[in-house]
Amino acid sequence: MIASIGWHPVAASSDLPTGHVYQTQLEGQALAVWRSAEGEVNVWEDRCPHRGVRFSIGVAVGNELQCQYHAWRFASGSGACTHIPAHPTQKPAAVIRATIFPVIERGGLVWTRVAEDHSEGTVPLVRDGVVMRALPVNRPAATVEAALLAAELTGATFFVQPLAEGQSVIRGIARDEASLRTLDSALERLRRQLEADHAVI
Amino acid sequence: MLLYDNAMLPECYAVRLLSGLLGVELDLKTVDCYPGRQHREEAFLAINPLGTLPVLDTGDAFLRDWLAALVYLAARYDSSARWLPTADAGRLAAVQEWLSIARLLQSSAGAARLHDSIGMATDIERRRREAHDLLRMTEKHLWFGERGGDDWLVAGAEPTIADIALFVHVILSEEGGIARMPYPAVRRWTERLRRLPNFALMGGVFPMPALDASRTLLSETECQAASAQSATH
Ligand code: FES
């Protein structure tokens, strides 16, 4: 397992088909992740600056994200509002923009960071492989990381995405396609143990 | 055909949705179950002693189960057998398996939604846990399906009534406090479904533009330029 400071994988490249807005969280920050028609990946706060509606129920249209509620559109890259249907002839004010986060796409994963402190941390160099299915676990990231280390699973590199209080997602890059199902089942077993240890009933 | 219907119930929505996709016209008769409690009145109990909605009056029979109504509509009106693959034993059984999962979603996610929306008494935490267990299973199935090129619950090029039956409960899950964020492959599948032509909506279900339409939007400026040009000619 590789621990990375600040930067975390929050989606797989394959999670972002045309038109789709992927919904996730990092350290309590709600995120909307999407790919423009030109292939640029965006990680934005999952919140429309108009009325605060989640961007992730909207749709990516070409190189813009269109909000589900009043169909305001926001540009890939800058997050600037480009179009307000109620005022089709006016250019939206420059201050209306989505909150954007830095993005690096590497190893088939989309990485970002949301922490205020920008001084430290890089995206680790990852070996090429096959991106595994993301597995959400209802346990804190530190607990999941410790359990992954103890489990000594081989054949993949794992990363733990801290979602919010008490929740995380295990992501991984497997060496080959053939081991995907086996590793997925191993992670599911690990999750059952972790969540059972903590079961309310 | 007459559907005893209620606009807010996912089970009624499933029947309206499939009939729209099949191009079958239904007459709707609204039964006000909340707050009207018309589903407990003698007139309705005479039609359906269970007091549940929807009921599909086919002219020959009253179908009192929403999944039975889906089976009936597909078997009767879809001559291509795309929605209910009756001639393929393996796929037909797979459809039935998912219909059973849809029933479990009704009693978990569906119950949680009724709890949150109209105060129906239930063990809410337990219902949510049950729904999440089903969604976890569905997520795994759909994720590996996507890798193998399968877009729908049952392997094959086209969706089946299984997709419709699960969809109506999945898409309204957040109204019962069941987040869909942990289920990205499920979220993508709900978008693929919503992009089908003639896909009916209900309150709380948002439209997805067809991908062709979004490509048209993409070149909107070109369209404007073109129309401006043609206007000058
Ligand atoms: S809330 Fe997004 S456009 Fe109004």
TrEMBL record, chain A:
Keywords: 2Fe-2S, Dioxygenase, Iron, Iron-sulfur, Metal-binding, Oxidoreductase. PROSITE patterns: RIESKE. SUPFAM superfamilies: ISP domain (SSF50022). It comes from the Bacteria. InterPro entries: Cholesterol_7-desaturase (IPR050584), Rieske_2Fe-2S (IPR017941), Rieske_2Fe-2S_sf (IPR036922). Pfam families: Rieske. PANTHER family: 3-CHLOROBENZOATE-3,4-DIOXYGENASE, IRON-SULFUR DOMAIN CONTAINING PROTEIN. This is Phenylpropionate dioxygenase-like ring-hydroxylating dioxygenase large terminal subunit.
Automatic annotation (TrEMBL), chain B:
The keyword Transferase applies. Residues 1-81 form the GST N-terminal domain. It is an enzyme of class 2 (transferase). One of its GO terms (molecular function) is glutathione transferase activity. This is Glutathione S-transferase. The keyword DNA repair does not apply. Its EC number is 2.5.1.18. InterPro entries: Glutathione-S-Trfase_C-like, Glutathione-S-Trfase_C_sf, Glutathione_S-Trfase, Glutathione_S-Trfase_N, Thioredoxin-like_sf. SUPFAM superfamilies: GST C-terminal domain-like, Thioredoxin-like. Residues 88-211 form the GST C-terminal domain. Keywords: Transferase. It comes from Sphingobium boeckii. Homodimer. GO terms for biological process: glutathione metabolic process.
